[in-house]
Amino acid sequence: MASEQSLFQDLVVLLDKTIEDLIPEEVQPDSDLKDDLGIDSLARLEVVAAIEERWGIKIPDEDADELHTVRQTVRYIDQAASTST
Amino acid sequence: MNRSSRHVAITGLGATTPLGGDVHTTWQALSAGKTGVCHLDLSSQCGHTLPVRIAAPAAVDPATQLSAAQVNHTDRSAQFALVAAREAWSDAGHPVGGGDAVPPAHVAAVVGVGIGGIISQFQQLDLLLRQGPSSVNPRCIPMILPNHAAAQVGLLIGAQAAVHAPVSACASGAEAIALGLSLIRSGQARVVLAGGTDAALHPLIVAGFSRMRALSRRNDEPQRASRPFDAERDGFVLGEGAAMLTLEEADHARQRGARIYGYLAGAGISNDSHHVAQPSPDGAGTVRAVTDALTDADLDASHIRHINAHATSTPVGDLTEAQALRTALTSATDHAAVSATKAAFGHTVGAAGAIEALTTVLALFHRTAPPTCALERVGPGIDLDIVGAAPRALPPGDIAALSTSLGFGGHNVALVLRSPS
């Protein structure tokens, strides 16, 4: 199981590839996906799809709707990835 | 303000073509008589041997010039448009992605496509068939709409006056520039980024054009395959790329001290209404577009000293166009140096009219008609003064040039460009 820190770094790389105009240095664990990083509803779908592909997990819509911050997303990936392996 | 009092200057150029990833590289290669046509076999993508295994791919992959996120959000056709738009916009001295040198409410973008986001369509269809609906990119629809490239360019430059995506097959790029002219004359916009793009090097497109017998089959001699107006021409070579022109109300350009490459003096648009793919045998629609463009520019045929012809290298199309040009310009045709640059670029479909308009602007700016690189012997019935393998000097003074673009569906577009004063 990856550490939370390395998952965070992997997620920042993924966000940088997925979101236009994102400044990776500005991404913090408590960054709000929408308010701080400008991830709109369409971009959120892309991020979820990219996470699913990257970590080989499935994120149901109702779970995705509850992910508001980077930290929540990292923890979700951590749990889901460890459950699926 | 009537339309004649709003002259339209060209203040920025951008291109990514089979000859180069920018305007300078493209012009240098074109002037040197190089061709972008090469061996390119897409057969492995469809599991069958394609009858045509040559093409004119872009010299630089646009994905290497954009961020990973931009690439993920866009079809290759829009990627070309973005690269060309960025160059044309900054070349004109306008800041890309910030700053308001021109209020966004006065800025428009017009980007034509002939085929559009076909590569993304097939990629997404493949994902759907193999992995199911949840694997389809959430941006699939914007990526395959015909206005995809126009919308992306509009976002890039903050165009709030208008964003349009004219679709008129191989005339789309020229029609976009004609529409840009109208937007400035009408006062709807002061600055317009206008051009065309296409990225359709896909086996279905090759197979489809092959079935129409439209493509050259000179698979063993790619560099001699695209030979507009030549006696041995046997079809066109498919290319890809984009070009964009920054059009600007001339007074606005002068007030801000912008460099002016030349002027877009007039445009003519017509339709043959004859056949879905064949040109009208008498070329009447093309004649009308050319004469209308001259009238619109308030010039007579004697001002035209250079022509960049549509000339794709098909046996029928080139002959009909050559005859139409002579009918429209009469004896003034004798004083016009004709270049057919698809010899070098191949046929870039929706980008062609824009690449050729850009090339025409540069020809006037540098006073050099570019070569028709593969021309060996002018075909029968083609009574034009065609620039061959070497570039030719254009006369000094106030001269004008014509760029023609024709498309499946009977589209005819003629643009009249004027040298910088």
Automatic annotation (TrEMBL), chain A:
Q: Which GO terms describe its molecular function?
A: acyl binding; acyl carrier activity
PROSITE patterns with a match to the protein in the record: CARRIER
Q: Which GO terms describe its cellular component?
A: cytosol; membrane
Record Pfam families: PP-binding
The UniProt keywords, alphabetically, are: Cytoplasm, Fatty acid biosynthesis, Fatty acid metabolism, Lipid biosynthesis, Lipid metabolism, Phosphopantetheine, Phosphoprotein
Q: Residue ranges of the Carrier domain?
A: 5-81
- Give the location in the cell: Cytoplasm
Q: How is it modified after translation?
A: 4'-phosphopantetheine is transferred from CoA to a specific serine of apo-ACP by AcpS. This modification is essential for activity because fatty acids are bound in thioester linkage to the sulfhydryl of the prosthetic group.
Q: In which pathway does it act?
A: Lipid metabolism; fatty acid biosynthesis
Provide the primary localization: cytoplasm
Q: Which residues carry this modification: O-(pantetheine 4'-phosphoryl)serine?
A: S41
Question: This protein's superkingdom?
Answer: Bacteria
One record GO biological process: lipid A biosynthetic process
Check the record and name the HAMAP family matching this protein: Acyl_carrier
Function, as annotated: Carrier of the growing fatty acid chain in fatty acid biosynthesis.
Q: Record's PANTHER family?
A: ACYL CARRIER PROTEIN, CARRIER DOMAIN-CONTAINING PROTEIN
UniProt lists the family membership as follows:
Belongs to the acyl carrier protein (ACP) family.
**Name assigned to this protein:** Acyl carrier protein
UniProtKB/TrEMBL annotation, chain B:
All residue ranges annotated as the Ketosynthase family 3 (KS3) domain in the record: 5-419
Fetch the InterPro entries from UniProt.
Beta-ketoacyl_synthase, Ketoacyl_synth_C, Ketoacyl_synth_N, PKS_Beta-ketoAc_synthase_dom, Thiolase-like
Q: Which GO terms describe its biological process?
A: fatty acid biosynthetic process
Q: Which domain of life is it from?
A: Bacteria
Q: Which UniProt keywords apply?
A: Transferase
| Gene Ontology MF terms in the entry | 3-oxoacyl-[acyl-carrier-protein] synthase activity
- GO CC term (a single one): cytosol
- Report the family membership: Belongs to the thiolase-like superfamily. Beta-ketoacyl-ACP synthases family.
What is the protein's given name?
3-oxoacyl-ACP synthase
What is the source species?
Streptomyces longispororuber
